[in-house]
Task: inverse folding
């Protein structure tokens, strides 16, 4: 099945070498198809309005303004309108400048004209491919006769003279048929083709045209004896004029690989981003691929069999497969587009392959200040920084570049790679309580800062909200550059604007004053942030404040306050309530802010005191009163009955918080106190909020007031870890867990390289080379593993972008795999077990197995952490990121590995995970022994299918279970539980269902 007609959107990426140094800056009203992955859809009815001076309309005007300008790519503006930019190639700038339209889609089956040989003309087909077309910037007429930027092949004899090239948009033949071919492909530009503007001419001439992709693509067939199919009033071998229309500024245009069936048009082609496409994902069909289109620097590999197996062919350029041994033989396809950096000039020496993402100084295996040349595939962008932490001067590259002679030669200490699907943009969330309407300076609207560091280009901003959005783009001084709403009353307002690198502002507003609601703001290529920086820091030390000892309440509570001794300059947002005595919260976040983003409460309102309860401690509870424009997130307790200090906590500006869900903690029912109290807890409603677990008190029983519960807006926080966007190798380091091994552990973890030489496969299992000795014996010494405090033991971090229906979502998981050579089973009573009398029989150990895979997963939504999952045998526990029950070291989750069996838990304790038939229990014991830091040189890899890994990761292709087969199963316990003395080794990690991109379950 071919790709359906699509309404194309996208900005053309610079197609020539373009280097930028420094940090300074100054409608299609048709039914639209859903956006392709990574795209922002064009919106019908959007009414943008540019408010700045007219811009250059022609290359001559650029020359007039800047006489030294040479030939190259520039941004012109149709009719001088800043809201209608387009990319032009200015030619002959030293003489009489001419405008050419660069064609992003130039290749085998795009932007060509063909005179097909045969019949009355001898020779070989004449095919002329166009990379740029001559265009009048005022009338938008294309001169189809101009062949300045073309390549041609073939020759026919027509009317006694040789023909070696063809005008643009012309299909011709002389064989009584329509075998002539041509294609117009304006995708990646803001233009579309005039409708029904093609005619047949000549003798017995006929032809046809197929418009697609919102009239940006036209496929032509034509011929006769002899005849052509070409634009109106054009001559077949001479050319003429083809009118275009300006539609809307496109969003980022990304090149793609494509595969075609026999005779396939653009609408039948399947577009492919870098990745893996098995037989069930080939919409072009099985054994159907007849041609491939390969962008510069990419590779397309066709595999004869499904599962990326069998003979294969790799292509680095456009190829027609007709007559080859691989024509219509592919059952799976892999596409790659690697960025390579080299330690020597001339693309020589030590190299490092880079995926999309951020690479700080410690991640550059090629070395600091060592990069001297780079290979950058089409559609990719690499930004080099002179300093670590993505600071200092920068250099932006979009093509293969040798830095010899450049100030950046061997000067890079960090870099960012952007791909066709992963850009350096991010998503923000916000809310209005009562918006200020169409007023960019209203304090009731929401203002954001924009940092654009790419090449001068068209950047798109999108505001999504149910309440009639209105969006402003301002320069750094607050001057409005453009404003837009959705004229049809829809949910999006969008601005596409040509930006130089620099700082800008956005204002999220609504068409009417006083609207309330929550919104999402995104950019395809720029970084967005809130105007004032609010930072958080995790704390795990707390001071006891109060507990209800001897109050007689039906349930227990203890109140804790973050200890700020290790976090100077940070403040608490409220106290934490725990539903037990003596149980300390494991973590919360405290805050620090610049300017007036934080404020003291102006007062407190009394909630409750313990008078009449007979409790051991005299205490009172209070809720802070925020200044106007601020929100206080939590209540506080105070020993005694006096009002607490207003310096105890801080309140946060309203725009930095989001509504939260409500969780019950405690009430004093049964205490006999003079007053009533219920303690609730504010919990993040979804991935947008960051919970601080602060308590919210009310002086009565019953349902709470939902308007008092708030969480921090995660996207408003200034921490680098919470900026959103990339989930990459740097993310894997930033969020790698600390795993506490038990004090008495004796079956340690190991690397796979340590384990595998000691086992051999039999087709179903990996068996130990040396016999175990018995079903519960561990004679081979390697089963003891490796102590992480004595040798480096890596954790394996797998990055999985989740998909739905094959389309990437905004959810990415990092699965931290840990491996142990041996799992020690559980001591089980053989006989009846009672809690008072113990085991009436004897004990034996069940559930041992060679090999043990465990994992901890951090889930990201829009590039920010949302949840943490800890595996525990066949089950597990899920925690909201920031949950008070899960400790963090900075942004590193802390987990505790169970003694011998290695399940992961959030605390040091005994965890009963199963009660068996005879009354006995199965328990996991954890304690704070050796710290195993997963961020110490982990092995990081993205998802790819089993069977395709090479080199040091080839062990991921192993399909056998990772240990000996089961044994010791003939006994009453095994009969009842299905658990043997020696269980089978665990399933290979990638054979488990959840690492597959299409599996959305967090497990």
Result:
């Amino acid at each position: 099945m071919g790709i359906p007609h699509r309404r194309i959107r996208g900005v053309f990426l610079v197609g020539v070498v373009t280097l930028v140094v420094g940090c300074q800056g100054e409608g299609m009203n048709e039914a639209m198809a859903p956006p392709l992955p990574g795209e922002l859809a064009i919106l019908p009815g959007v009414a943008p309005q540019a408010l700045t001076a007219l811009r250059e309309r022609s290359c001559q005007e650029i020359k007039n303004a800047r006489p030294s300008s040479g030939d190259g790519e520039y941004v012109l503006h149709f009719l001088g309108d800043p809201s209608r930019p387009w990319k032009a190639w200015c030619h002959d700038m030293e003489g009489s400048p001419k405008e050419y339209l660069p064609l992003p889609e130039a290749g085998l089956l795009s932007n060509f004209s063909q005179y097909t040989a045969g019949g009355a003309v001898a020779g070989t087909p004449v095919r002329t491919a166009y990379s740029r077309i001559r265009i009048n910037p005022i009338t938008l007429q294309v001169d189809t006769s101009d062949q300045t930027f073309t390549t041609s092949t073939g020759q026919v004899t027509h009317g006694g003279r040789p023909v070696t090239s063809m005008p643009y948009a012309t299909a011709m033949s002389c064989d009584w048929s329509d075998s002539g071919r041509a294609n117009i492909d304006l995708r990646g530009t803001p233009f579309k083709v005039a409708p029904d503007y093609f005619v047949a001419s000549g003798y017995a001439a006929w032809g046809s045209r197929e418009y697609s992709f919102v009239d940006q693509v036209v496929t032509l067939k034509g011929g006769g004896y002899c005849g052509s199919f070409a634009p109106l009033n054009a001559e077949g071998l001479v050319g003429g004029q083809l009118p275009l229309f300006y539609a809307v500024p496109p969003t980022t245009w990304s090149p793609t690989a494509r595969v075609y069936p026999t005779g396939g048009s653009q609408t039948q082609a399947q577009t492919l981003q870098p990745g893996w496409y098995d037989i069930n994902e080939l919409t072009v069909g099985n054994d159907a691929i007849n041609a491939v289109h390969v962008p510069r620097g990419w590779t397309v590999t066709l595999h004869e069999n499904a599962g990326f197996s069998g003979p294969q062919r790799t292509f680095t350029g456009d190829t027609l497969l007709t007559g080859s041994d691989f024509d219509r033989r592919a059952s799976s396809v892999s596409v790659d587009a690697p960025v390579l950096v080299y330690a020597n000039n001339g693309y020589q020496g030590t190299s490092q392959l880079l995926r999309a993402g951020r690479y700080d100084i410690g991640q550059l295996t090629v070395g600091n200040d060592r990069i001297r040349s780079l290979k950058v595939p089409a559609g990719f962008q690499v930004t080099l920084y002179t300093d670590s932490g993505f600071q200092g001067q920068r250099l932006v590259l979009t093509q293969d570049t040798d830095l010899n002679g450049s100030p950046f030669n061997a000067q890079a200490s960090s870099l960012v790679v952007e791909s066709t699907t992963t850009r350096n943009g991010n998503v923000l969330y916000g809310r209005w309580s009562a918006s200020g309407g169409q007023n960019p300076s209203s304090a009731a609207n929401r203002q954001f800062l924009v940092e654009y560091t790419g090449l001068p280009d068209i950047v798109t901003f999108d505001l999504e909200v149910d309440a009639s959005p209105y969006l402003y783009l301002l320069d750094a001084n607050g001057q409005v550059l453009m404003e837009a709403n959705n004229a049809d009353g829809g949910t999006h307002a969008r601005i596409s604007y040509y930006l130089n690198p620099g700082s800008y502002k956005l204002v999220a507003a609504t068409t009417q004053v006083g609207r309330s609601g929550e919104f999402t703001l995104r950019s395809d290529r720029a970084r967005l942030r809130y105007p004032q920086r609010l930072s958080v820091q995790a704390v795990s030390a707390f001071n006891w404040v109060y507990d209800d000892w001897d109050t007689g309440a039906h349930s227990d509570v203890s109140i804790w306050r973050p200890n700020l001794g290790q976090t100077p300059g940070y403040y608490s947002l409220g106290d934490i309530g725990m539903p037990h005595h003596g149980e300390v919260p494991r973590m919360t976040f405290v805050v620090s802010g610049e300017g007036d983003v934080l404020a003291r409460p102006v007062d407190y309102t009394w909630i409750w005191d313990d008078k009449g309860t007979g409790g051991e401690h005299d205490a009172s509870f209070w809720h802070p009163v925020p200044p106007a424009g601020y929100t206080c997130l939590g209540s506080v307790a105070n020993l005694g009955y006096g009002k607490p200090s207003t310096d105890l906590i801080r309140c946060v500006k309203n725009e930095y918080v989001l509504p939260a869900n409500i969780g019950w903690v405690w009430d004093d029912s049964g205490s006999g106190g003079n007053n009533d109290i219920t303690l609730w807890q504010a919990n993040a409603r979804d991935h947008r909020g960051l919970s601080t677990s602060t308590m919210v008190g009310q002086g009565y029983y019953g349902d709470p007031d939902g308007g008092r519960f708030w969480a921090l807006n995660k996207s408003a926080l200034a921490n680098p870890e919470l900026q959103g966007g990339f989930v990459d190798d740097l993310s894997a380091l930033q969020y790698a867990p600390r795993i506490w091994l038990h004090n008495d552990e004796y079956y340690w973890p190991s690397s796979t390289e340590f384990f595998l030489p000691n086992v051999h496969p039999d087709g179903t299992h990996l068996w130990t080379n040396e016999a175990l000795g018995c079903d519960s014996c561990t004679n081979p010494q390697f089963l003891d593993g490796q102590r992480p405090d004595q040798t480096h033991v890596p954790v394996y971090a797998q990055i999985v972008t989740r998909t739905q229906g094959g389309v990437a979502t905004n959810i990415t998981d990092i699965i931290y795999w840990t491996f142990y050579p041996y799992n020690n089973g559980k001591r089980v009573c053989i006989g009846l077990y009672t809690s008072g009398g113990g085991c009436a029989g004897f004990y034996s150990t069940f559930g041992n197995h060679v090999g043990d895979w465990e994992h901890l997963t951090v889930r990201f939504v829009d590039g920010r952490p949302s949840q943490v999952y800890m595996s525990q045998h066949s089950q597990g526990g899920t925690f909201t990121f920031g949950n008070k029950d899960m400790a963090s070291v900075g942004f590193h989750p802390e987990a505790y590995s169970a003694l011998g069996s290695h399940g992961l838990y959030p605390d040091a304790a005994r965890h009963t995970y199963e009660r068996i038939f005879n009354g006995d229990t199965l328990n996991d014991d954890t304690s704070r022994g050796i710290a195993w830091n997963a961020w110490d040189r982990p092995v990081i890899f993205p998802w790819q299918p089993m069977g395709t890994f090479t080199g040091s990761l080839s062990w991921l292709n192993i399909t056998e279970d990772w240990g000996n087969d089961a044994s010791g199963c003939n006994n009453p316990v095994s009969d009842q539980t299905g658990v043997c003395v020696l269980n089978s080794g665990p399933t290979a990690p990638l054979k488990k269902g959840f690492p597959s991109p299409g599996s959305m379950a967090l497990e």
Remarks:
- Residues 915 and 921 are 4 Å apart (CA to CA).
- The chain has six domains: 112-246, 257-336, 339-418, 433-531, 535-718, 737-823+850-913+927-991.
- The helical segments are 59-65, 729-734, 752-755, 972-977.
- The longest strand covers residues 807-823.
